[in-house]
Amino acid sequence: MIYIGDYHVHTNYCPHGSNDQIETYIDKALSLGLKEISFTEHAPLPENFIDPTPEKDSAMSRDDLTEYTEIIQKLKEKYQKKIKINLGFELDYIEGFDHEITHFLEENGSIIDDAILSVHMLKNPENQYVCLDFSADMFAEIITQFGSVDKVYEKYYQTLNMAIRADLGKYKPKRIGHITLIEKFSKRYPPKNNYSNTIEHLLENISRTNLSLDINTAGLFKEHCQQIYPDKSIIQKAFLKGIPLIPGSDSHTANHLTKGFHQLPENVKFARPV
C-alpha cells in the first residue's frame, strides 16, 4: 500500500522530543516519496493550567508559538512545488478548559491547515490533573489515585467522549487522536474489563459528528503496548462506519516518519485531512 502523507508529526518545538529541525523532517519526507506532511505540534497548554508532568514538558512554550508558525509558513512556500506542508497542532482536550481551548483556536484557527484533538490529561477524584501517558511508574500512581486500572480507563473514555462532543467553535479539530492511548501501559497494567462496547459508542459519536480518526503507529514501539492506536479490529470497525482514517507516525524525530506504516491493515482505505 502506498501512503502519500504522514499526518501526525512533531518538531524541535516539542520539549519532550528531539532537536531535529523542521526542514530535516521535510527532507526525510521527500526521501520517502511523501507528497504531504502535517506538523501537529503540541499546542501550548492553557495559561491557567499547570502541567502535571515532572519537567513541565507536555507541550510547546507559548513563547515559541509565533516562531513555530512563521517557520512553517516560510517552508510551505519554499517546498510548495515538492510537497504539501500542513501547519497544525495537536491540541489537548482538558476537562474544564473548553473556554480556553476555544479561545486558542479562535486566535489561531485561520492559519491552521490540520489539527488533532487528543486526551492526555485526566482529572482525578481529588479534582487534580494527571498526565496519563508520561511513564509506567506515573501510571501506577494514577491507578492508586483512581482506585483501580479500570477506573482510569473509564475516566479516559469519558473524557474522550467529552472531547468528541465538545463545542469548541468553528475551528475545532476535525480529527480525534489515538483513541486507545490509555492502552500504552496495558501489558504491565491490564484492565479487568473489556471496553469494546465503550469504543463502539465512541466510534458512533465520531461518525455522528463527522470527525475523522488518527491512526497512530507509535503504540507499536511502546514497550507495554506494542499495538497501533487503535488496534486493527477497531480500525476495521471505524472503516465500516465510514469514518475517515488518517495515518500518522506521531514522530518526534525525523527518522521515525512513517514508522510502522507497513503494519497498517491493507483491507481498509486511508484518507488525508480535508
UniProtKB/TrEMBL annotation:
<feature type="domain" description="PHP">
    <location>
        <begin position="6"/>
        <end position="218"/>
    </location>
</feature>
<dbReference type="GO" id="GO:0004401">
    <property type="term" value="F:histidinol-phosphatase activity"/>
</dbReference>
<dbReference type="InterPro" id="IPR016195">
    <property type="entry name" value="Pol/histidinol_Pase-like"/>
</dbReference>
<keyword id="KW-0368">Histidine biosynthesis</keyword>
<dbReference type="InterPro" id="IPR004013">
    <property type="entry name" value="PHP_dom"/>
</dbReference>
<dbReference type="Pfam" id="PF02811">
    <property type="entry name" value="PHP"/>
</dbReference>
<comment type="similarity">
    <text>Belongs to the PHP hydrolase family. HisK subfamily.</text>
</comment>
<protein>
    <recommendedName>
        <fullName>Histidinol-phosphatase</fullName>
        <ecNumber>3.1.3.15</ecNumber>
    </recommendedName>
</protein>
<keyword id="KW-0378">Hydrolase</keyword>
<comment type="pathway">
    <text>Amino-acid biosynthesis; L-histidine biosynthesis; L-histidine from 5-phospho-alpha-D-ribose 1-diphosphate: step 8/9.</text>
</comment>
<dbReference type="GO" id="GO:0000105">
    <property type="term" value="P:L-histidine biosynthetic process"/>
</dbReference>
<dbReference type="InterPro" id="IPR010140">
    <property type="entry name" value="Histidinol_P_phosphatase_HisJ"/>
</dbReference>
<keyword id="KW-0028">Amino-acid biosynthesis</keyword>
<dbReference type="GO" id="GO:0005737">
    <property type="term" value="C:cytoplasm"/>
</dbReference>
